[in-house]
Design brief:
With 133 residues, the chain is mainly alpha-helical. The chain has 4 helices and no strands. It has one domain. Helix 2 runs antiparallel to helix 3. The two termini are 20 Å apart.
């Protein structure tokens, strides 16, 4: 068995892990805990990385969240259009799309922050930090 840790950036993003060590969790609670799904540590519990590069860094996550939500709306709208052959009507589009937006809000919130940390910050995977446990 290989002892070398092979990082997977995609898997770390899906699991909401720290970008530097890919071991520590970014969020304290699961996304389905609707009272606390927004709680995020300021630093990684494994490697000590401070996630917020500068004050207000995560304000940019609004734009990422907007992009994710619009993408979900377009895909769902296209799927409804295709399945109904264009005869869904006003409520046939709006009710499923708004329901889907509400149901996916915790996920779009989380993944917008995760994508901000991974793609718009200077943090990169460091194998020395991964073995710091």
């Amino acid at each position: 068995m290989c002892d070398k840790y092979e990082p997977s950036k995609g898997l770390a993003i899906l699991k909401c892990k720290c970008p530097q060590c890919q071991s520590g969790k970014l969020f304290n609670f699961p996304f389905y805990n609707l009272n606390k799904f927004t709680e995020m540590d300021a630093t990684c519990k494994v490697c000590g990385l401070k996630y917020e590069v500068e004050p207000g860094f995560f304000w940019g996550a609004m734009y990422v969240s907007y992009t994710l939500t619009v993408g979900i709306m377009l895909i769902l709208g296209g799927l409804i259009l295709w399945l109904s052959n264009g005869e869904a009507g006003f409520y046939g589009y709006t009710i499923p799309i708004i329901s889907c937006m509400i149901l996916t809000a915790p996920l779009t919130y989380r993944y917008s922050r995760v994508l901000m940390v991974y793609f718009f910050s200077p943090f990169r995977f460091n194998p020395d930090m991964a073995n710091k446990k």
